Amino acid sequence: MNVDRKVLLPVGTAALALAAAGFAGAGLAGDGGEHAAVRAGAAPAAATSAVGPHKCGKTPSKNLHLSRTTILKRGKSWVTAKVPYSQTGTPYCNSYGRYRRDCSGFVSMAWGLHTSYWTGSLLGVSKKVSNVKKVAKGDALTHYPKSSARGHVALVVSKGEKGVYVYAEPHTGSYAQKQYWSWKYIKSNHYYGIRYKNVK
């Protein structure tokens, strides 16, 4: 078990039933193996929340300008709902709009993007943080394209001397959750920080 990365939410043991309905998310091939590097020790969580009818807000027509506090509020909405991970299933929709239920779709929602980006295309709406230890709440951690896992991204919630707390959609069979990543884990898996260009 990877002791450097901790899942903070209780998890179930039943297998996640993935939705059969297809969803053509742009660039999914780039996200296909994005979670391999963090799979060790990750809980195979059974999502208890439904992806059915919710109060569905309108996805913004253009990328929003948001404060860091608002970004985290949006991210927490998926964590609270335990939105189950899926690259191909029915997108999740709440008051913030409709987005693909994987790591990059989650960050797209939190950042208020006009559509579900993929891990690589998020680099086009962000800038690299010069030092990973300088990330701030609302930034993201990614290892695209530096890892053989091809890409993963998570939203920074807070940081401390030994690591950071993140909101993440980890992998198939899990759901949106708060996790702790040590600086050692971040370095060994080639993560670096990115900052949304429209953050206030």
TrEMBL record:
SUPFAM superfamilies referenced in this protein's UniProt entry, alphabetically: Cysteine proteinases
Its keywords, alphabetically, are: Signal
Tell me the leader sequence span.
Answer: 1-26
Which InterPro entries does the entry link to?
Papain-like_cys_pep_sf
Output this protein's name.
Answer: CHAP domain-containing protein
Per the UniProt record, the source organism is Actinoallomurus oryzae
